[in-house]
Amino acid sequence: MKNFLFAALSLVSNFSKYKENSPDIKGVEIEKNSQFMITGTYENVNNFWGLSVTNTGTEDYFYTFELDDFGKVYKNGHEVSFSDIKEGDKLNVTYDGSVSLVYPPKLNNVSKIEILPTPEEKAAKEKENSGK
């Protein structure tokens, strides 16, 4: 039971990612080069800017994030600046799947941010496409 608890805690805290060859952890597979995507709304919560994730079926979550050195921000398929992200924008954030256990939790190694179109932008594009 003690080993199970240690392995579970190490996975949650991302300990195993940095201690891949540790003799204390055996039989834990670590997936490499994975990318995970999370969708939410860009908001300011308690003076922190980040991603508010709601309607998850369990509870709401809030994550901060920074774009890594080689990451890109896209809107409508075109590269834009990080400063183009505005409060209330819906975002798809691609990251490595790990979350730092700080307050508020931080998505690690964000490689891509996609600003999703608003319902009005979607409707206008559909209207434009149906007219062709």
Radius of gyration: 18 Å
CA(first)-CA(last) distance: 64 Å
Characterize the overall form.
globular
Largest sheet strand order: 1-2-3-7-5
Number of H/I helices: 3
Walk me through what this model shows.
By secondary structure, the protein is of the alpha+beta class. The protein contains three helices and seven strands; from the N terminus they run ααβββββββα. The protein has a five-stranded mixed β-barrel with strand order 1-2-3-7-5.
Short description:
With 132 residues, this protein is an alpha+beta fold. It has helices spanning 2-12, 15-18, 119-130, and strands spanning 36-45, 48-53, 61-75, 78-80, 90-95, 99-100, 106-115.
Secondary-structure blueprint:
Blueprint: H1 2-12, H2 15-18, E1 36-45, E2 48-53, E3 61-75, E4 78-80, E5 90-95, E6 99-100, E7 106-115, H3 119-130
Parallel strand pairs: 3-7
Antiparallel strand pairs: 1-2, 1-5, 2-3, 3-4, 5-7, 6-7
Give me some keywords for this one.
132 residues, alpha+beta, five-stranded mixed barrel, 3 helices, 7 strands, disordered N terminus
